[in-house]
Write a structure and sequence with these properties.
This protein has about 425 residues and is an alpha+beta fold. It contains 14 helices and 22 strands. The protein has 4 domains: about 90 residues, Rossmann fold (3-Layer(aba) Sandwich), CATH 3.40.50; about 55 residues, Dna Ligase, domain 1 (2-Layer Sandwich), CATH 3.30.1490; about 120 residues, D-amino Acid Aminotransferase, Chain A, domain 1 (2-Layer Sandwich); about 100 residues, Glycinamide Ribonucleotide Synthetase, Chain A, domain 4 (Alpha-Beta Complex), CATH 3.90.600.10. Strands 10, 11, 14, 15, 16, 17, 18, 21 and 22 form a 9-stranded antiparallel β-sheet that branches. It has a 4-stranded antiparallel β-sheet with strand order 6-9-7-8, sandwiched between helices. Strands 1-2-3 form a 3-stranded parallel β-sheet, with helices on one face. The longest helix is centred in the middle third of the chain and has 21 residues. The protein is globular and about 55 Å long.
């Protein structure tokens, strides 16, 4: 496993439970991952060192967690060395690596998404924004750790976001071009499918909470919590998502010589006229993966292998009917300036509650061996129970058993599902 966050902890937790797994390594891992896998002190972006270690250990399956090594070509390097790897090659990872690439693919192949224009010049972008009016959405073209999107309520806010990216260098090279797109009305949901280059196997729906504060207030983050299943994502909408977005994208990528293998994470807006694509990600969501893994009944390893081997056409997975909900406990100051080094205690008390699993997202051990915060998003307190309401109550009960004075969380994860009744 490559990565060090909550998503990778959840995947390691599931993989380690498989009878097919004799030994599991994680590069670089974290203290939570170390309870189920052997950490390897290689950063996720040191691609050649990762491939060298995998070859030396005769690894049977390499699983890439984060998007940055995927976009940088880790799968290409690993496969060239004869290592079976779960995840897309760089050419296919462009679905996440460039929002402009994805928008143009959608335009060529009739995949429903918001109308858009791509800009590299701030004056042109600002003129277009002024002509279109607000609300409007401004996105850095490249990877920005979930923080490159501005949903602007005013023209001034949108123009400032465009100038920050194109002139101010806020997102570095990732913001050297921006996508300005139509604001879509509806409810956001995340839809996941395993893909083997030709076939797509639908997984679960989940709903993330991107804004830092209760009631969806404050700046966007990498995600403050999520739940599954999503009541708004009916069977009919799930099938429309497969038939109008996922399958056409898989076919389009294959036709353009960029066959996609791995997990396709489709961020949707459920509009009055059906689902529309907001954006694609080319890896498991974080924190969506956490709720997905605790709901998965089947062994995850054969599913990953089937995606690698082109054998998903006749593959199936079983899921717990229970709901799952995950609360992100973040360091104070997140997402702008998270406070590092805060002491964390009481995780064992939280995990003593039946149905609760705490995944480590940004932790480390200090020189005294104490668990401390080492990132913006620190813990994913995840609960599985009969309903979203029950899972929410259990997750917050577990949160309150954890002693982390420098941490905070949203207190309304799952509110849309509960509001529906």
């Amino acid at each position: 496993m490559v990565g060090s966050g909550g998503r990778e902890h959840a995947l390691c937790w599931a993989i380690a439970a498989s009878p097919l797994c004799d030994k599991l390594y994680c590069a670089p891992g974290n203290p939570g991952i170390a309870t189920v896998a052997e950490p390897v002190p290689i950063p996720a972006m040191e691609l050649d060192r990762i491939v060298g270690f995998a070859a030396e250990q005769k690894i049977d399956l390499l699983v890439v967690g984060p998007e940055t090594p995927l976009v940088a070509g880790l799968v290409d390097k690993a496969e060239a060395a004869g290592i079976k790897t779960f995840g897309p090659r760089a050419a296919a990872a462009a679905l996440e690596g460039s929002k402009g690439f994805t928008k143009e693919l959608c335009a060529r192949h009739g995949i429903p998404t918001a109308s858009y224009r791509i800009f590299t010049d701030a004056d042109s972008a600002c003129a277009y924004i002024a002509a279109k009016g607000a609300p409007i959405v401004v996105k850095a073209d490249g990877l920005a750790a979930g923080k490159g999107v501005t949903v602007a309520r005013t023209v001034d806010e949108a123009q400032q976001a465009a100038r920050d990216a194109l002139l101010g260098g806020r997102f570095g090279a990732s913001g050297s071009s921006v996508v300005v797109e139509e604001f879509l009305e509806g409810e956001i949901a995340s839809f996941f499918a395993l893909v083997d280059g030709a076939h797509a196997l639908p997984l679960l729906t989940a709903q993330d909470h991107k804004a830092v504060g209760d009631g969806d207030t404050g700046p966007n983050t990498g995600g403050m919590g999520c739940y599954s299943p999503v009541p708004a994502m009916t069977e009919a909408i799930a099938e429309q998502t497969m038939s109008r977005i996922v399958r056409p994208t898989v076919a389009a990528m294959a036709a353009e010589g960029r066959p996609f293998k791995g997990v396709l994470f489709t961020e949707l807006m459920i509009c009055r006229d059906g689902p529309k694509l907001i954006e694609f990600n080319v890896r498991f969501g974080d924190p969506e993966c956490q709720v997905m893994m605790v709901r998965l009944k089947s062994d995850v390893v054969p599913a990953l292998l089937a995606a690698c081997d082109g054998e998903l056409k006749s593959f199936d997975l079983r899921w717990h009917e229970d709901a799952a909900l995950s609360v992100v406990v973040a360091a104070k100051g997140y997402p702008e300036k998270p406070v590092a080094g805060g002491l964390i205690q009481g995780i064992d008390r939280a995990e003593a509650l039946p149905g609760v699993t705490v995944f480590h997202a940004g932790t480390r051990n200090d020189p005294q061996g104490r668990l401390v915060a080492a990132g913006g998003r620190v813990l994913n307190v995840t609960a599985r129970a009969g309903t979203v309401a029950e899972a929410q109550a259990l997750a917050y009960r577990a949160v309150d058993l954890i002693d982390f004075p420098d941490g905070f969380c949203r207190r309304d994860i799952g509110w849309r599902a509960l509001h529906r009744g």
